[in-house]
Write a structure and sequence with these properties.
- The protein is an alpha+beta fold.
- It has 8 helices and 16 strands.
- 24% of the residues lie in helices and 29% in strands.
- It is globular, with a radius of gyration of 21 Å.
């Protein structure tokens, strides 16, 4: 009998260890580390990328509400699978700047000198401005225009007192792409399930000073949202802009004091990203 109980105990403990290990592995399955994305990963989805990884972040208080970008969407994109490989910033500026370059300080500064000029059927001329989105709204991408077949670009600038790792949590419907300081850190064609639900928490690197984050979401039909927050420690330590600004001039007034301009073109991923358009 004693041997039986000892054997039962060993089996039980082994089972609990397996369950615990599996649970731990599952809990970490949606964490993405090791970025930025390499040249052959720029349009690949994370793996795994399944419903069971979805996390509700509805209670998080750090969802970003203010963005800088074109004052309207790119329209009639043909559905996000068709639009995702295209560089719509390059298209709208006639080659003056790419979306990769737009995620740098130098590229951001250049938006002061030109408007976006998409074709009339794709939204026409768009001025750069500050706009506000409600993270709880599952259709916050619509912005008064068509609700289907659209792309939205939004920019924030993070002023970090030190170089640091941060955890970035995006929620999107449908195809999301995120660049930071000229490098692509996230690509996912799968919608996250709800406006404040995430599939993946992404570990990213922020440098000391200004960090430019460019967030793009392409939508085909149904809900349309673009949301983002970082981990609590990062939100406590950094300043995120736009803050009090409400237009282009006041936005640059907020950030101009800490922008360190680097030359456009010295980006390892620029050419690889452009080739995939």
């Amino acid at each position: 009998m004693k041997i039986f109980y000892q054997l039962t105990f060993v089996i039980t403990m082994s089972f609990l260890m397996v369950i615990g290990t599996s649970s731990s592995a599952f809990a970490q399955a949606n964490d993405i580390e090791g970025g930025p994305l390499k040249a052959d990963e720029l349009l690949k989805d994370p793996d795994p990328n399944v419903d069971g990884q979805r996390e509700s972040h509805a209670d998080n208080k750090n969802w970003i509400t203010k963005w800088y970008g074109p004052d309207g969407n790119y329209e009639n994109n043909g559905g996000f699978p068709a639009s995702a490989p295209k560089d719509l910033i390059d298209e709208g500026t006639n080659g003056k700047i790419t979306q990769v370059e737009l995620s740098t300080v130098a590229g951001l500064n250049r938006t002061k000198s030109f408007d976006m000029k998409w074709k009339a059927g794709n939204g026409g001329t768009r001025e750069w401005t500050v706009f506000e989105l409600d993270p709880a709204d599952g259709n916050n991408m619509n912005r008064g225009g068509p609700i289907d077949n659209i792309d939205t670009y939004g920019i924030i600038v993070i002023n970090s007192p030190v170089a640091r790792e941060a955890i970035m949590s995006p929620a999107h419907d449908d195809h999301a792409q995120i660049w930071i300081n000229g490098e692509k850190w996230y690509n996912n064609s799968r919608w996250t399930g709800a406006a404040r639900t995430v599939l993946h928490n992404v570990t990213v690197e922020l440098k000391k000073g200004a960090n430019v984050v460019l967030y793009r979401v392409g939508e085909s039909g149904g809900s349309a949202y673009i949301n983002l927050h970082f981990d609590d420690d990062t939100h406590d330590a950094v300043k995120i802009y736009p803050n009090k600004s409400n237009d282009q001039k006041s936005f640059f007034d907020e950030i101009q004091g800490f922008l360190d301009v680097e030359p456009v073109g010295k980006l390892a991923t620029t050419w690889a990203d452009i080739k995939r358009r």
